[in-house]
Write a structure and sequence with these properties.
alpha/beta; 9-stranded mixed sheet; disordered C terminus; disordered N terminus; two-stranded antiparallel ribbon; elongated; 452 residues
């Protein structure tokens, strides 16, 4: 049996961890056999108990995966509920034998196991240590600890792929607006070299994956089942495309079923492994909002795309914006990049309407222009009186306005031009006030995905 894995972290004179929390000095590195035993133990623990179990994670941190597995098998699990769970699973088989079979199955699938001892382990998921959701007795709100291992399908290194990544989540029953928006945002992010992470479901998830793939970028689908049990099956072809250029990732071993609670447990990984999460559409009771709550709890950037107030698929999104001041409203790729990108580099351009010649006029020129009638002609003396400027000033301003194409001179005075000109590059504007008011030009961001 062969498995693909990265080299163990740490070398030289520094101490390092074996992935189970125990320190090894530089002159006492773990052997290959010890690392393989640790890997099998981690797989066995995820079968014996569900991923994210905080008690199990803390035991692994303190005693290592191998000793934790032995403790649980001997009935030493902390807490009656965990002991009952372990006993029930033990009655179904030997956890180490199950783990070995899962490794063999992964080899046939072309997948690999990644643990904290591997170079491609995504370090940001360690922030789940501080994710504690209070006020809930549901199991899915207690299974919030960092993962023990990941199953990965795809040729890209996991940590590198997730380093510059944004999660996009939302409703399965997405509207046309939501699908369009998700596709456009994902396309724009992938086009700029960002990885788009989602859960592979119908609706917003699938649209995000497809948008990134269409841009020729990378996307990651974090599954709540075995890598050989893609769910939903209707997206099987999409999952194959994702594995070709990106990654399929799961905490559950090959063959694991897509049980309902596992999707919410999975969501914590989507929140923690990325720099920020974008909620595109969500109803009042949506699993997608759970991802955002987990992201908020570990201080990740949370972004929400607004939707029509008449749509039930906007209720969850708008409530998130109302309840959490730290949640940011985003309406374009540029907005998302401003929130998760480099400070001072990925700023979104200011949204401005088309520049008009009138906007660049100084106060006196604008007043003189307003003194002209909507129809007909007005003499210079009358224009000066109505605008409150000297006749000489009125003549100078009228000449400027004529040069800019805003007015035309006739035998008996001046009239408004029948055609409103647009500003051309290099158009001179006479006054210092007009130049100061104009401000620097803002070029449009290439490929920006506008929403709406």
């Amino acid at each position: 049996m062969t498995t693909s894995r990265g080299a163990s972290r740490g070398s030289g004179a520094t101490a390092r961890q074996d992935g189970g929390g125990r320190k090894h000095a530089a002159d006492d590195p773990p052997t290959t056999a010890a690392l393989e035993t640790d890997r099998l133990a981690r797989v066995a623990l995820t079968w014996l108990t569900e991923p994210g179990n905080r008690s199990v994670f803390e035991l692994v941190e303190s005693h290592g995966a191998v000793d934790t597995l032995a403790l649980l098998r001997d009935g030493g699990a902390p807490g009656e509920t965990l002991r009952e769970t372990v006993a029930a699973r033990l009655s179904a088989g030997n956890p180490l034998a199950v783990a070995a079979q899962a490794m063999e199955r992964a080899d046939r699938l072309g997948a690999r196991l990644v643990t904290p001892a591997d170079d491609e382990w995504p370090l940001p998921v360690a922030d789940l240590r501080r994710l504690v959701l209070t006020g809930s007795t549901r199991r899915v709100d207690r299974e919030t600890a960092p993962p023990l291992c990941f199953w990965v399908r795809g040729g890209q290194p996991l940590a590198e792929t997730l380093d510059r990544s944004v999660a996009m989540v939302g409703a399965r029953a997405a509207t046309e607006y939501g699908v369009h928006t998700s596709t456009e945002l994902a396309y724009g992010l992938a086009e700029r070299g960002w990885t788009v992470v989602s859960g592979g479901a119908f609706g917003i998830d699938a649209a995000a994956h497809r948008g990134a793939l269409t841009a020729g970028g990378r996307t990651v689908s974090v599954l709540a089942c075995g890598l050989d049990r893609p769910y939903p099956m209707g997206n099987a072809a999409l999952f194959d495309r994702i594995a070709d250029t990106g990654l399929l990732v799961s905490e559950w071993m090959p063959g694991a079923d897509p049980l309902r609670p596992r999707f919410l447990i999975r969501n914590r990984v989507i929140a923690a492994a990325t720099r920020g999460s974008v909620l595109v559409e969500a109803a009042a009771r949506s699993g997608a909002t759970q991802t955002m709550h987990r992201a908020l709890a570990i201080a990740r950037t949370v972004m929400v795309v607004p939707g029509p107030v008449t749509s039930v698929m906007s209720i969850g999104s708008h409530e998130l914006l109302r309840q959490y001041p730290e949640a940011r409203l985003v309406a374009s790729t540029a907005h998302v990049l401003e929130e998760v990108g480099r400070i001072g580099v990925d700023l979104a351009p200011l949204v401005r309407g088309p520049t008009r010649v009138r906007d660049q006029l100084d106060d006196e020129s604008a007043t003189v222009l307003e003194a002209l009638p909507r129809r007909g002609v007005r003499g210079v003396d009358d224009v000066a009186a109505r605008s409150g400027v000297a006749v000489r000033t009125a003549l100078r301003k009228l000449a400027l306005l004529e040069e800019l194409g805003l007015v035309i001179q006739r035998d008996d005075g001046y009239a408004l031009s029948p055609v409103t000109p647009t500003t051309a590059p290099g158009t001179p504007v006479d006054t210092t006030a007009a130049r100061a008011h104009r401000g620097p030009p803002v070029p449009p961001a290439a490929g920006t995905a506008a929403v709406g």
